[in-house]
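Reviewer comment 2.1 asked that we show a complete input and output for one of the modelled complexes. We chose the zinc ion case, as it is the one discussed in the main text.
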Amino acid sequence: MYQAKAFSAASASSALASDTIPRRDATSRDVQIEILFCGVCHSDLHQVRDEWKEAMPTVYPCVPGHEIVGKVTAVGSDVSKFKEGDIVAVGCLVDSDHDCPMCQKDLEMLCPNGVFTYNSPDKHGTAPVTYGGYSNSIVVDKDFVLSVPENLDLAGAAPLLCAGITTYSPMRQWNVEAGQKVGVVGLGGLGHMGVKFAHAMGAHTVMITTSPEKAEDAERLGADEVIISKDANQMQKHAMSFDFILNTVAAPHDLGMYLNLLGADSTMVLVGAPDKPHDLNAFGLLFGRRRLAGSLIGGIAETQEMLDFCGEHNITADVETIAMQQVNEAYERLLKSDVKYRFSIDMESLK
Ligand code: NAP
Ligand code: ZN
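Response of the prediction step:
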């Protein structure tokens, strides 16, 4: 065991503060990574503040962070895919049981014994729960380590590991393709990646936002059209016209107003994970025989596919790079939607 530097929260109402945490020595299957950048996901904030109490109560101290890019510092004897010095990435998962029906289908995120990067029971017993990427070092099972295409900027690549895969995976699962009209609801960390992917997949991409001041950015990111969702006339004009909608909103809201945008037999996929239930009037589903679904990150093979897709299309997140010490201020700004469009923590600041 060794000690790593980290930022942790001691309780739901504490600010994140400097800490040292135990990390296991690399086993024969492990990759030890010096973390270079870690994105700030809204899930980090939900978890740190124990907003998911009922489904996933937070164990403190909590070290969040699941958008990790770093450099390999050591590998175990059974690791042949990575070597010291490689630039690698880790997302929301660090382990699973490797052999259940879900793992066999490359759907590790659905494995009943999946281990999330933070706040999951630590099966190595290094600490009560896993500690995430707000740290200068992490040790991860080789099957959960990903390769980063060489051409990608590393600060901007980090958010691909959650915001990227969470928006890419449902678009693949629901077969988004050229010629379709695809909506992305909410222009935040996930939403801005959703717009980039829908555009790169050739869809007619529509940003649906509550914030008129984001319209110009949405177009720059790849949206062909922008709908201001607070404007009932604009919403009415697009009623029943979408093939697919990805809803990334982090707060409870009326789902019906977005369902009404879907054409017959079309699907809206929820990826936002608010602390309280949404409003849902059945009529939004009945008329048009519409579908409402959910999606959780993506499997490891698909995450590598997404990274390779980003390499080919030169896609990274638009980030504001911050020092670890600015993370509490970053959380306040995230709540006000005051970031374009993801914070990426430079771990140099932990030295
Ligand atoms: P974010 O950067 O805060 O973006 C959320 C966006 O939602 C905001 O920018 C805003 O966009 C919109 N919004 C916020 N409040 C709203 C409201 N009351 N009504 C309508 N729109 C509202 O958050 P994020 O990091 O993208 O994460 C989004 C959600 O996805 C979080 O709940 C997070 O926990 C969850 N998540 C889920 C998965 C998964 O696997 N399913 C993975 C990662 C994250 P506009 O200003 O454009 O309206
Ligand atoms: Zn996330």
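Residues 41-43, 46, 162, 166, 186-191, 209-211, 214, 248-251, 253, 271-274, 295-297, 334, 337 surround NAP (ligand 1) (CB under 6 Å). We note this here for comparison with the apo prediction described in Section 3.2.
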